[in-house]
Amino acid sequence: MMHDAKPKKKSPGKTGRPHGRQQAEKAHRGRDKRPHLRMKPEAELSLKTVFAKIGKPAAAVFRPDPFQLDALEAIREEDCLVMAPTGSGKTWIAEEAIRSVFKNGGRCWYASPLKALTNAKWVEFGDHFGSDNVGIVTGDTKENTDAPIIVGTTEILRNQLYDTMHSGRNLNCDLVILDEAHFLGDRDRGVVWEEIMIYLPVRINLLLLSATIGNGEEIAAWLASIRGKPCRVIREENRPVPLFPLFLHPSGRLMPLVEKSRLFVKIDDFIGRRQHGRPERGLPPFGEMMEVLDRFNLLPAIFFLKSRSECDAAIGMCGALAGSAADEAFLPDLETLLERFPYLRNHRQLHDLRTARVAAHHGGQLPAWKFLVETMMKEGRLKAIFATSTVAAGVNFPARTIVLMNSDLFNGHEFSPLSGTEFHQMTGRAGRRGQDRVGFMLTVPGRFMDLVHIRKLLSRKPEAIESRIRNDFSMVLNLLLSQTPEDIREIFAKSLATYQRLHGETPGHAEEQTDLWNDFQRHLRLLREEGFIGTDDRLTENGVWASKLRLDQPLLIAECLRRGVFPRGDEKLLAAVIAPFIYDGDQDQIVIRKELPARLTRAYDRVVKSLSPLAERLKAGGFPVAPLFLWPAVVIYEWAVGGDWDRIIRKAGIADGDMAMLIMRTADNLRQIMSLRETHPEMAALATAARGAILREPVVF
Known about the structure:
By secondary structure, the protein is α/β, with parallel strands linked by helices. Among the domains are: about 240 residues, Rossmann fold (3-Layer(aba) Sandwich); about 170 residues, Rossmann fold. Helices cover about 45% and strands about 10% of the residues. The strands form 4 sheets. An 8-stranded mixed beta sheet has the order 1-11-10-20-17-14-16-15, with helices on both faces. The longest helix has 23 residues. The chain is globular and about 80 Å long. It starts with 16 loop residues before the first helix and ends in a 7-residue tail after the last helix.
């Protein structure tokens, strides 16, 4: 189950794309020694008209658009799916729908996919409706949970539905809003959205909000079929700020990307050959690109780059632009945030933010730093952000221009051409409603930029969503709290997977979907063999408390609790041995055991040895079992005993954000153990103390 001496080699994946891309870049850098010709900011004369539109629109009294009013009318009586471009006013619909229910004494639940977005909505709704009337429930924060308006993550809402089904109560709510509803098609988390839609009581109206769903009518028809009430589709096609696509010649000359639906004639020279004048050795000249954008009033901008390291390197190439010091509010606003987060005064990228007003934003950074960057960008204090694609989904700060350096994207598994959905997420950040009359997408030529593909994406719709529902042990245990196997079979019959198999628009979908019922029975058999389910197909005593472990590895954690192998009386050791269950990557690190505290290696070895028999039975049953690496336990233990943050991440060779994520996910698993106060009071109390030992600055803020 574990390896703690030899690093594990990372597989290049099915296509070999990431590895092949890196090799190609390395080889190309090695043979290209040509000098770089400095960019000279110029623009085609044909752009004069569109550039003349740049600026802030005249102030006007807000009047809701017809689609917004139609959505409010619909949600009063039935379910509603709103599909509208980013920035078009979907949040206004949500706020007014909440206001209507709230005024009538009702209760609302607003669910979003990201904790950062949930926290932002908590503050925003508190300003609108009064902080006493708004509560929040996430894995990290739990405040004012009896309030009539609750914001939280979708996983929390799904868990509350499990609890209400078990207790026989009804969810105390009159309206549920699912923001970013396209997450229904997310490979890893879409199952949670689908479960919510299936389990939600029919009396509660459901409002779905998204900018990127390609088969909205099919989703609405499915919902109507399982909920027995209409789901009205409200579609708005027009962007609130028009998008104009541009092309940056390596010389620094701006051109229109398209002309009469074809690539601009001067761009044809770039198709199928190397782009002379552009440095292909090392990074592009980001500082010079900034000068071009600044010259034509195209800032602020979001540069979408392929990797964290490229984002970090890019900001160091941007010197201070002329006029950057003119924003008198920049330094006071920055100082206000630094007073709130004093730890960030030593952040290695603070100098670039201060001097060049640029920042990097990606998953390898501290949550507080990302919050600072997002706040400064939303307030208009930054010239540019260099970001990975995570900015496109869920974080709400647009810019005048978005810059695409590549036409492909690493989706967590491999590089693949940008999809229509991904493209719309990115371009949705171009143009700020109320601040811009036009937004821009700038394409930059390079080895991994297919301009023909980008041109086609301009008219391509988002892809259709396919069901991602699947069984896991946590789902099976929680459903069996209140349902019989035959009841669960009926639930599966209501799934989007079943609907798409029978009525769907996706040929071959039936072959791609696992037979949910057969897979459920496979899970059921193993749970019965392990004593979590009795011969009557009802949960045993162990099964009931194990169902509260709503996490990725419930059986392994439950087995440790059942066998009493977790350390007792030492909350730091408990946090440490939970960490290996959290890490879901395949990268091991060399750990020198003789340099570690003996109590740590003993506790870790005891867990691994005790779980080996169950791991073998899981593998024999065809269930994947992730290795339990030692290094996450070492990292969390050093942090729990009071180690220095910078020293730990240097020694471990991991990024700030990855360290923070490991801690937060460990804390979330400890929170699940805390829920076992009735059956495991000693371990629940120790888990509470363990969370306290690891949740401190700079992880939480």
